[in-house]
Amino acid sequence: MSVLQALDLGLAILILAVACTTIATREIFGAVVNYVAYGLLLSIVWIRLYAPDVALTEAAIGCGVTGVMLVTAGAHLRRPVHARDAEPSSLPVRFLAAVLAVLAAAAIAAVVLLLPEPPPSLALEARQSLAATGLGNPITAVLISFRSFDTLLEKVVLLLAVVAVWSVGPDRQWGSAPESLGKPRPDGALIFFEQALVPLGILVGVHIFWVGADEPGGAFQGGAILAAMWMIVMTARQAEPPRIDARWLRLCLVAGPAVFLIAGLAGPGMAGSFFAYPAGFAKPIILFIEAFMLLSIAVTLPMLVAGPPHGNPSE
Amino acid sequence: MSAATLAGLVGAALVGLGLYGLIVNPQPLRKILAFNLIGSGVFLVFGIVARGGAGAGFPADPVPQAMVITGIVVAFAASAVAVALILRLHEETGRVTLDTAASPKPPPKAEVTR
Asked: Of A91, B5, B90, B97, which residue is 20 to 30 A from A249 by alpha carbon distance?
């Protein structure tokens, strides 16, 4: 067994162990902390699968932003603890659930071991069409060019999620700002951390977006990092969440999907079909779309974490 | 065993673990964690399909990878909506469980006027 194989095996055991403790920990806050560790380990597996773009997304969104959201929610739910609420189901239910879980896992494991050889692949088609986009990163080309309609709909899903989260709040608070993310009096270490990290983080976020055309990265990963920076600023109470009826906020939220849709609708006139980009201009158009997506993602994710409006709308 | 096959088996085990947690844990926030475990397991299995589709100079098929990125973002959006619903449920009823048998109906909470 080579060193790399031993590392892979160790990583697999570690991930399964952390996943088990995530499921088994009764205390919500502890379970969430386990889940964040799990997400970081998972992004290393994505590196091992030669998917650095997915690893960046998993680390930034699947682990980072989701972690902040769940930790905030866990802190809210921790206050009144009802011991009876944490009790797991009865023994027969647990046994049946375990049987079902083992059967499901075994079926998927069998599929994994019996995958067709060679597996179906669109790598050749992606390589042949990559030159026409002028991009070097095939993932960005798939996201913004080959399967652009998927990506547009995904942006719309994010927008719908913001509307859904805002709608959960009581009617009388509509239009006000969401609850502050941090404690009323943040400690000095957090403020120092915020002041030291945020300028650097903004630089890294914009860099990851910019190199995303040719290297691993892109609007999703860069946007998630920018979103994390805004959340750190809000947690350190150096800025408060904006009112949800602020015009600039709503413009930022729709800018990405709107620019994407306009570029798609301009396709029939410029290049002959919906979401077609004119030859030779594909790369500038893709980067233009991505820049607005970056803005929208950086604003959407913190608003999803901040939750529904929570305050007096007339203030 | 290759790294990809191992990752696929880990994905299968994660789906099983998540499914068990989703059924057994009564607290909704822990159900969300379990559901996200299932999701990341499915993504891993899709990831090894991508790795298997390596060719034309790419170490992995870029199409499934791009779809996993889309999937991670959508999973986050769904989790955010679920968390908002749970927090509102908690605000209204003071409870953090979906198990109606375990929690008797709480006394009606006075409307908070702010």
From this structure: B90
